[in-house]
Amino acid sequence: MTTQKLEWKSYPKNMGNRLHTMCSYMAMFPPSVPNYFIRNFSEEGDVVLDPFSGRGTTILEACMLGRSAIGNDKNPLAYVLTASKANVPHKGRIISRLNNLEKTYHPDRIDVGKESRDIRMIFGDYTLKQLVYLKTKLDVTGSNVDRFIASMVLGILHGNSEGYLSLPMPNTFSMSPNYIRNFVSKHGLRRPKRNTFALLRRKLERSYQKPPISGKAYNQDVRNMSRIGSSSVDLIVTSPPYTRVISYGRFNWIRLWFLNKTFKEVDRKLFATESIPKYTSFMKDTISEFRRVLKPGGVAVLVIGDVKNRESNRIYNLAQIVWENCAKGVGLRKVCEMYEDKISDETKVSKIWGDKRGNATKIDRVLVLQKA
To answer: Using CA of residue 87, residue 366, residue 345, residue 17, what is the dihedral sign?
Structure first.
């Protein structure tokens, strides 16, 4: 098999787009990947869709490149992050809203005693009162300004520097409460007194950027994206799930708290399995929906990592499985041989688990398909 040149490896990390730094997200691909495929398989004005949009990386790149972008993700956290980048408000409106929120904030009216022991372990009362106030005041479904502010909050919610609102934590995703509790005890950590409004203004200055055009974001099951018309999409660039490599709800339980969601309800709704037959069935339905929304001649780019069975240690080439069992023979053809991208350990989120990292591997493959 011919090895494809990975041109995007030489691109800048965030493609010069500061909005990519708004909030981290697990298993996100670098902006250079969608940038490369958007440039090579679409033109200005074309419709670009990411059906598993995550933090909105593809959507932002598409908007910056003058494409009509559509993001979709069933995860409410991913939807908020994607929608924030798809429809970026003017900076002045964000500043005005922040000023108004701070002006009408009265800490004596906020009771944090109702919050869980786990949340109170992470944030000092001074900061937690501001967070509880914001989570009740921000309308993430009806206001693009409020949604953008909420996304900035999610980006600074927890981490290991003074730019975050939490006590020092080893990662910007949510470790389990027991892990955090032991980490706090081991290192003698204290909950800091951080001003949320001040840190949000700093975050705004660091990460704000407004794309030349706006896009759309939906919160639908990828197998039935009813709000996207048939034969309406020129290009799909996405990364489907990899058979239970990551529990997107569990590892975002703190951010989901801010969005008034629980990790259990989110993980129940998201597809996850270690069964190859179940994964294949899911991807068959997904590919069928991709074919429905693609225009004739439209292209779908799928970034799919190899996975390892934790019991047998067998490595599965999921991209090849998807091609052979889900896409081949249903009116889609391979545009080229698959790209093979060997990922450094340092860029894999799962590296922190060491030998317990589950079924994540160091190889991602890119499958490029075209509708007949």
So the answer is: negative
Q: Which two tokens stand for residue 132?
A: 């509880």
Q: Token pair for residue 287? A: 């590919």
**CB burial class (10 A; 0-12, 13-18, 19+) of residue 270?**
middle
CB 56 within 8 A of CB 211: no
270 vs 134, residue with greater confidence? 134
Domain boundaries, the chain: 7-88+211-371, 91-207
Task: Give the pTM.
Answer: 0.92
At residue 51, the 3 state secondary structure works out as: coil
pLDDT in tens, 200-236: 999 999 999 999 999 999 999 999 999 999 999 999 9
Read off the tokens for 323: 């091609």
User: Residue 47 phi/psi, 5° resolution?
Assistant: -95, 120
Residues 40-86 have pLDDT tens digits of 999 999 999 999 999 999 999 999 999 999 999 999 999 999 999 99
Give the percent of the chain with pLDDT over 90.
Answer: 79
**Cα Rg, the chain, nearest whole Å:** 21
Q: What is the CATH number of domain 7-88+211-371?
A: 3.40.50.150
